[in-house]
Amino acid sequence: MKIFCVAGSLRQGSLNQTLLNYAVQALNDIGVDVVTAPFKDFDLPLYNGDLDTEKTHPENLLKFKNLMADTQASIIVSPEYNHSIPGPVKNLVDWVSRLRPMPWKNREVLLMSASPSMSGGRMGLWQLRIPLTACGAFVFPEMFCLPKAHEAFEGGRLKDAKTAEILHATLKNFVQHLQS
Question: For the chain, which terminal residue's Cβ has fewer other Cβ atoms within 10 angstroms, N or C?
Fold first, then answer.
């Protein structure tokens, strides 16, 4: 099994990228093959129907599509902006939705977030579920949200053992779901 994982943040030192790095190691530890790429590799112009032709699809969109096609599922670790989806993440979802066949259709997706807030980005993930589901993705019912993420890591590891246990259980449940 191979899972495509991406942190939807362009910022260097992103808490969401730190969470993704930790999750990738946890997945590797249980024998899951993981493909990752920096979100900046998928930088796209704002969706514009005039650019939406098979002859003019942005190269970065095709990179994302090919990584999806080479894997069985996805994990998206997304920041939360103003209790919603960051513009670049929503823009990527919209661009991918225009490809045929629809890459999101029947795609298994786990959503995670890291945020300095007390909600850990949960409201943004609920918003992200909507367009993914509308595109036919199966968004795994469990989500992992890391509150106070700016205080949660030390040396790339989660400091709190209970939080690490919850993350590992979420990842394990997702992998077991994929295998069933």
Answer: C
